Amino acid sequence: MVRWILRVVGTIVGLALAAFAALVVTLRTKWDPGLRVVRQMQRRSRAGELARSGRPGDAHVVVHHTGRRSGRSYATPIGVERTPAGLLVTLPYGPGTDWARNVLAAGGAVLTIDGESLEVTSPRVIGLDEAAPLLSARELRVARFFGATDFLLLRPADSPL
Q1: Where is the chain membrane-spanning (predicted)?
Q2: Average confidence score pLDDT of the chain
Q3: Which CATH architecture has domain 31-156?
Q4: Within the chain, where are the H helices?
Q5: How far is the C-alpha of 157 from the C-alpha of 161, rounded, in Å?
Q6: Residues 80-107: pLDDT tens digits?
Q7: 12-45 confidence digits (pLDDT tens)
Q8: Domain edges within the chain
Q9: Is the dihedral of CA 146, 134, 105, 120 positive or negative?
């Protein structure tokens, strides 16, 4: 009985490690079919995350953007790091995601951070070389581990930066 339980647990752990390894390889290589699967899985969990994001004390932010072709309003949960140069968003899938393309096309968006709205302008995609000095040591390690090479720099509308 104990051996059977250990085999089941070992199999589950092995599958979880294999899935994590596949995720890392997919993000590092930017393999398009794998990225589509990851994005689909994230879209399914987005409703629950969206309900929690942007509240006071929450680590996630909600970006409110308008579809560049549809004109519809969208809200997407994202992670943002405050830096001296502005707000920095890691783009693990690259700048081709719909929300990033919408923000770039519109020239800005509105973020909900800690329960308050903040208008951001001048979105600019930057590389890891330019983003590295702006990132915390932890965020830089995570970005390098997952192979993130693209970042979106946003400037608060009321900032003189």
Answers
A1: 6-27
A2: 86
A3: Roll (2.30)
A4: 2-29, 32-52, 98-106, 128-131, 137-146
A5: 9
A6: 999 999 999 999 888 988 999 999 999 9
A7: 988 888 888 888 787 777 788 877 887 777 666 6
A8: 31-156
A9: positive
